[in-house]
Amino acid sequence: MKKLNVTLFILGTLFLLGSCATTSTSVDRIASDEVVDLSGRWNDTDSRLVAETMVDSLINGRWLGKFRSEEGRDPVVIVGYISNKSSEHIETATFTKDIERELVNSGEVTFVASSNERLQLREEKLDQQGNATEETMAALAAETGADFMLIGVFTSQTDAAEGKKVVLYKVDMEMIDIETNQKVWIDSKDIKKYIERSKNSW
Amino acid sequence: MVGKALRILPAGIFLLLISCASTVTSQMQYVEAEAYVKQRNYYAAAEVIEDVKGTAYKEKERVLYYLDVGMLYHYAQRYEESNSALTEAEYAIEELYTNSISKSIGSAVLNDNARDYSGEIYEDLYINIFKALNYIALDDNESALVEVRRLNNKMNLLQDKYNALYDEYSRSGEATQAKVNEITNQFHENALARYLGCILYRNEGDYDDARIDRRNFNNAFLTQPLIYPFPMGLPPDSQPAEGTAVPVNFFAFSGQSPGKKGITYYIDSSAGTLFFTTVDQNEDNYLKELADIDTMFVPGLSYGFHMKLQFPRMFNRSFPVDKIYVYADDLILGTLGLTEDIEHVAQTTFAQELPLIVGKTVTRAIVKGVVKEAGQAATNSVIDDQVGGLGGELLKLAMGVATDAAVDATENADLRISNFFPAKAYAGEFYLEPGVYNFRVEYYYQGSLLFSDNLGQREVNRNSSILESVFLF
Description:
The complex is a heterodimer.
Chain A: H1 2-19, H2 44-59, H3 62-71, E1 76-85, H4 92-106, E2 110-111, H5 115-131, E3 148-161, E4 164-177, E5 183-196, E6 200-201
Parallel strand pairs in A: 1-2, 1-3
Antiparallel strand pairs in A: 3-4, 4-5
Helix pairs in contact in A: 2-4
Chain B: H1 2-19, H2 29-38, H3 42-51, H4 62-75, H5 79-95, E1 99-100, H6 101-109, H7 121-137, H8 141-156, H9 158-171, H10 191-204, H11 207-223, E2 246-270, E3 273-281, E4 288-297, E5 306-317, E6 323-328, E7 331-335, E8 337-341, H12 342-386, H13 389-410, E9 422-432, E10 435-445, E11 448-460, E12 465-471
Parallel strand pairs in B: 2-12
Antiparallel strand pairs in B: 2-3, 2-5, 2-9, 3-4, 6-7, 6-10, 8-9, 10-11
Helix pairs in contact in B: 1-13, 2-3, 3-4, 4-5, 5-7, 7-8, 7-12, 8-10, 10-11, 12-13
């Protein structure tokens, strides 16, 4: 009889252990620059780190000094399209904003609005022509033209086996002279991630 | 002593029966949802599925839930909601690579329904095709290509996935009872993904990658006759054609991907006779039906042996379509070719896993049978000692029936499978002068029109227009 009791107890306990897990939610606020890797996918920390490194390389490139000595002013830069050719959905808009922020804060270049932003601004300027006073209205055809456009591309390579995965993210960026189409600066930044998924967990 | 034993036994049976509520696959929600799908009211079908979240779909069925609603939202042209659900399914499948030891034990003791459903191999692959089509509909070519690349990456990892299944089986101890060979992956290249990739790369102006995907589309057919046992259709062009005409690409999906049903075998003994009873499951309403009874005379055999085995069987739900015509402004553009037999891929990949499932089921049923017989023998002995007589015999009979019922209730095949993937995928490319056209897709079998899908007016411009037609029922 003891055997039967023990068998029933084990059967019941094992199943309850397996099936009666409960879920709960807890939220903790953390610093926005704290590094948190959950899934191993591209995240805000990667975006920020690449943007910082890229801008550091950009403003220390020879092209900047050359332009200043030739033109006697800071170059005017615009961030163009950063395409995603990786196998992950990367929020390139976040990355573009990170780049813009770093460039503006560096004080080394003059920065102009992107094409989408310019459309909004032009609409506003047109609206001002009929609605704002003459003294406060923004003038049409007085925009600052960009000298250079910064473009880029994300790619990734994945190698995986037995629950282990290595993902190499590569961000290639180029600064192109808008007038001559000359590439004046090129750099790339890699982020390699090793992700190991445990095959077993309780 | 007897009073204590008799109190504990029903308590144990009760506990098992309650536990078993979550170890049976819920299928009845599909009957109502499919009625809406037949009316092409996919949004209402999605609402039916959403209403039973938490009941028919528990936390461990989250992959199944997101696959079902994700596909229905796709057909309902609610592309963002579809992407959101299919992404949840994809990420959950990825996370479930980590096996829960406690749930593995649960599945070894009870059945595979105790485990988190981590998706059939074909489901994990075709998620990305439908996400790509969602992004195309949302005019996001770049994100659609991300999905194609994700699928191609998964193709490289299929062997790893099979190894994980085999490892789990080996670790469970069941392998000591039933030896099963390791699984060798035979699916390395996905033709539909390459077809789609070729069009998308061409749209991006990336003709080299388009050419590579076109070549790999051909390779998929040439090197995998087991997966693609039908003639290869024409691949899309990897470069824009000369002249003013522009390509228009069509994808058509017909039928439903396979379902799963349980085939149950009961073995019972009476004096001198063994009974073999087979119970099948109706493929339309999922109700059980007696299929066969057989007997075998075994002199000397005594009454009381009972065993239940239930195995999952994948059944096809497609219907024959032999021609799909595409019309632009009532003029025939041409026919679409079969590009991916999703049903066949599902059956082939499932067949590779089946030996592991059968091995586990047989071992588990035998272990349960041995434990049950030992328990019954002990109980009967106590009843004989303490009760005896006719009352004792009746009590033993009642206890035996109750124990059999309780153990039977724990032995259920895992019949979980997404219900709304299509069975067949067809594709075709045609050239038209830029402009606005009224498109129609017609499905035929042996000259009879099965269904006419009016896609309405669409603009054809410089980039490939990619249009989709669906005929599930």
